[in-house]
Amino acid sequence: PIHWSHSLFVRIRKTIAKFQQMDELTSTEQGRDISRKFVSISKEIRHYEQRLFEQWKETVNAKAMEMLKQRIFRAEIDGKEVPADTPNAKIVVNFHTELTVLIRESKYLDRMGFAVPETALNVTLQEDKYHAYVESLEAMLRAHDAVVASLSPVETELLQTQIIELRGALDKGFKLLNWNSLSIPEFTDSCMKSINKFNAVVKQIQKNASIIKGVVDAISSVELLKPPSTPPGAELPELAELFDDIDKNRQAQLDELLRQYHQIGPLLIKVEEMVVNTNTGASPVLRSYYAYWEREIYAA
Question: What pTM was estimated for this model as a whole?
Fold first, then answer.
């Protein structure tokens, strides 16, 4: 409303300024009456703006303090806030839109010459800092969401402990930190280190899984009884020779598949080392992961 009334006053003032340059009009009684009405309207607009400002000033400090005390994260499902421990909830930066509006209002009122309350003015002067906080936190959460979304169901189960630990690194944003906290940059950096460490483990596990999948695909697509190719016009081999060639080809392919198959065990041990820091080849933590690849190999 203050912006609207002020813009109305500016338009009236521009019109009156042009009018006052016309001596033949301002020297008349009607012209003087218009000038008096302009002065009267100007006062009314100014009083109206002042009343609105006083109403705004009464609550702005309390609003600013309340919103600055809010935690920097909140959890959402389908855009609705839910408890932080709700399964599958999305973590979002909790910088209230009303705080953005308050900053914009304070800047505008300050430029208009109003005495903006100290708390609101201090918040406004730190706009760039809050903007930087929000950007860095959102970038960090995008990195977190991307690595978690890259996991297959079996990888999610395999890395459940690490996922819980990673979520624990973010918990300060729900439980401790608010927009008055001075340690938000350090918190963001610490979270990014945890995300990068987790991502490195995920990439290595997925690299090993890709190699194992290649072995499974090779087993699935092999043709053990493929007859040798005969050039056009060449004599067909004797039956015994044909069987011998087929058997040699079958054995060669079996040997190659066996060589590839024997790579799976060491790859699974590498996964075990990354996940639980052991190399037994029979970790209970990897039970479902072993079972997954057993089913894949059997189905091939």
Answer: 0.75
